[in-house]
Specification:
- It contains 13 helices and 16 strands.
- The chain has 376 residues and is of the alpha/beta class.
- The protein has 2 domains: 208 residues, Quinone Oxidoreductase, Chain A, domain 1 (Alpha-Beta Complex); 133 residues, NAD(P)-binding Rossmann-like Domain (Rossmann fold, 3-Layer(aba) Sandwich), CATH 3.40.50.720.
- Strands 3, 4, 5, 6, 7, 8, 15 and 16 form an 8-stranded mixed β-sheet that branches. A 6-stranded parallel β-sheet has the order 11-10-9-12-13-14, with helices on both faces.
- α11 links the parallel β13 and β14.
- The N terminus is likely disordered.
């Protein structure tokens, strides 16, 4: 029997186990490691064994703020191996390594036609689950990928030689590239990116790849050191210097052509606006909770500064993102270098805690149901 077929059959046998381990959300700051049923699949669906899943800031907000009903299993930056396929699935094979998006837009509704796919009603419906109400499910051993995700391009085959961990960055890279494109950067632009966690660093790298001069702001020198490894060599140490003043000193007093606010603190909106030149753009990327914040309306009207936002991914650039992530693994865009911590699923609660309390030495936190498989 060929090795590939034998391996696929062994994976299917493992997948047919009736139970699995998962980190289950029950209430605000209440996530428990539990044994739950392996989700069953229907026609057109896939069952994927998770190899690795990143802990995203949106997962943390849901856990800490209680914005979603319980119980749920979160996690959506995920990659793994297909272990079962429903009737009618012809594009994918057992044993195939894949990355899974948890949202797919319809491409036809009013919002899709207006190029705001994150507002599409279908896109707002999550199509991957490890049980309970669909919420991604990557903090578990297996996920069910629903038929419209499979049919709508939400499952991406991982090429040989690219590890699961690199592929798991496709969804966050998509969200970042979508935001960078909204800024309409020119090669002679100066860009300030506030925050050099994984999301902010990716914003800075992609802006830099477009030819812009990029200044990066963060409290932690350790993060600036990581950024330097990606060619970002204009750090601003936010704990030691005034960010807006430094940006103006670097731009003949004007300010940045574009500013990306990649951290969630609303108080930093003023910093971003102050650091932006007249006629420039400020993009909010991490302000995902509704509420109120203050800013100078004269800066928008009289100074003609544009305040805009970007949220979630765009399937118009999905192929571009996949090529960027896959080809970038060996060409200067190895995102696995952003991973600071790897936890087994049994230690998922600790992983969530570490991600919830970022320190100088913490960047991307990954949960791997089977330790060591994320680098395969």
């Amino acid at each position: 029997m060929p090795t590939q077929v034998a391996n696929s059959e062994s994976l299917v046998t493992a997948a047919l186990s009736s139970t699995m381990r998962a980190a289950v959300y029950h209430n605000i700051n209440d996530v428990r490691l539990e044994t739950v049923p392996v989700p069953s699949i229907g026609p057109g669906e896939l069952l994927v064994r998770i190899a690795t899943c990143g802990v995203c800031g949106t997962d943390l907000k849901k856990i800490h703020l209680g914005s979603h009903s319980a119980p749920r299993i979160f996690g959506h930056e995920m990659a793994g191996t297909i272990v079962a396929a429903g009737k009618g699935v012809t594009k994918f094979a057992l044993g195939q390594r894949v990355m899974v998006y948890h949202h797919v837009p319809c491409g036809q509704c009013y919002y899709c036609r207006k190029n705001t796919p994150a507002q599409c009603p279908l896109y707002k419906k999550t199509g991957a689950t490890a049980g309970f109400e669909a919420s991604g499910g990557g903090f578990a051993e297996y996920i069910r990928v629903m038929d419209w995700i499979v049919a709508g391009g939400g499952v991406v085959a991982i090429p040989d030689g690219v590890p699961f961990e690199q592929a798991a960055f496709i969804e966050p890279v998509n969200t970042v590239l979508k935001g960078v494109k909204l800024l309409n950067l020119r090669p002679d632009d100066t860009v300030l990116v506030i925050g050099q966690g994984p999301i902010g660093l990716m914003h800075a790298v992609l802006a830099h790849r477009l030819g812009a001069r990029v200044l990066t702001s963060d409290l932690y020198p350790e993060r600036h050191a990581i950024a330097a490894g990606f060619g970002l060599t204009n750090p601003i140490h936010a704990g030691e210097e005034n960010v807006a003043d430094r940006v103006k000193s670097e731009t003949e007093g004007r300010g940045a052509d574009a500013v990306v606010l990649a951290v969630g603190g609303n108080a930093l909106i003023k910093t971003a606006m102050d650091a932006c030149r007249m006629g420039g753009r400020v993009m909010l990327f991490a302000q995902t909770q509704h509420g109120e914040a203050t800013f100078d309306p004269g800066a928008v009207c009289v100074d003609e500064k544009t305040l805009l936002g970007s949220y979630s991914s765009s399937f118009d650039i999905a192929n571009e993102v996949s090529d960027l992530v896959f080809n970038g693994y060996r060409n200067g865009f190895d995102l696995t270098r952003l991973i600071s911590h790897r936890f087994s699923l049994e230690d998922a609660i600790q992983a969530i805690d570490v991600a919830s309390h970022p320190k100088a030495d913490s960047m991307k936190i990954m949960i791997e149901p089977v330790p060591g498989r994320g680098g395969e």
